[in-house]
Amino acid sequence: MNLKMSGGVNPQGCVLTNEGGPFRPNQASALTSKEPLSAMKAKLSFQSSLARTCLGATAAAALLALSAASFAQAPAGEPVPKLNDRRPFLAPGATTSDDPVRIPMKPVAETGPELVIRGGRLFDAVSGGVRPATVVIQGNRIKAVLPPDATGWGADAKIIDAAGKTVMPGLIDMHTHVTYPDRASPFDEQGSEGAGTLRGQRNLRYFLEYGFTSVRDLNGVSNAPFLLSQWSAADMIPAPRVFAAGWIITGTGGHATERPSIPSHGPDYAKEVDGPDAWRGMVRKAFKEGASVIKIASHFAPDEVRAAIEEAHLLGLKVTCDCETIYTEMAVDAGIDMIEHPLPRSDAAIAKMAKKKIAAVPTLQVYQNLLDRAGGFYGSTSRRFTMTSQGNFDEFKKMKAAGIIMGIGTDTIGDASLMVPNSYIAELKWFVRGGYSVTDALKAGTIVNARLLDMGDELGSIEPGKLADIIIVDGRPDENLDDLAKVQQVIKDGQWLIKDGELVTPRHVSTPLVKPSPPADVK
Ligand SMILES: [Zn+2]
Asked: In whole angstroms, what is the distance from residue 208 CA to residue 503 CA?
């Protein structure tokens, strides 16, 4: 389908398809963003069958075209559509991809021995409490959470003794750049998708070794973040889950594209687009390549940020923004889901964030690293304000006081991927300095982050039915955050990948030859 033009509609007012005749949007009843979600769903349900008849297209494609056509002309000032949650359209218990796009997948019967974690201190990320418990894993899911002395699993179960240790959900970092060049990266490899993919795989190993089972990667080189995301999801590389934005979308000369141009500020990384149609198109491009979230950055115009958010929400993706001052307010007014960084913004913008339940990922430590190293943030056209450590923390405190939900992210620029998990633990300590309890900081890094990813039903806590992303820590991180560096065992997607601190992957099972060889009849 040609969805490149405004709202997927050509100048004659027809949605274009490769498969059938034109479908005129006005054949379907009007669908406005003012309607309650239930009414929209009913109409979408009806219209999807109508669209299938008219187009002979898949239901998903028809819905997408229809939704885009209906919303594209929404006048400025009206609220943008809410996130298009796909879950109501799925049968209860349906198997899907383990990401916010939730693509239906063929179910696979879980067989094989259970993995049992016995006798540990279970950190309950929902309540923030700790209790003794035994956790049973089958396949890639948590099968049961039992009393510490429970029995009843199969005789072939693998047992991990966690006595005296803390069992907790895998950590989530909400702001990484695992493919970014670091000090060791040769200049001529910095724009290379291949080098970026390899660098990302190495950095993801560092994250995994320290207990990170998910990262949200918010800009990288070409399709490297998407490749890493797909290979990790298929368990083809030992890595955390990668919820990738792919690229930053910004206006020409916006953040991460400033001069002097360097490979990581060039078109292989951030995408410079101008005009609402181009912003909308780049959101679709990111979705096509495999995005789990859309990342935008200042600068932009109100109609551009609005088009990006509108399109992402129709596709079912959240949008987060690296922005400051007036751009933060613009993004908030346009219905953004989240704001990155502790950059300056007005008190009015903070009040609106709280009122509209717009979250924040303040990334305090990355700027502290920068201030410690360089004394300030200099020479950037996207940071035309004076940055200080206290100023950043004051923004955090205002957001905390306003009741804004905040997640934990490290923003691994420069050599920060080499600092895992020190920068993450420091970020948690900033939260505690700002009034969080230690357990609330750990909740922010697990269940709150999972919810901000739109994955709270699958990740972030140890509960039956959820994906088995679990770590075992030799200490009590719920009492002392420094203990979080003592991660010993890491289970991601039900696979015990880090054993006693080291990566262990099962040997590849060799595929047999088609026939015995050399053939007997060849003399
Ligand atoms: Zn960043």
From this structure: 9
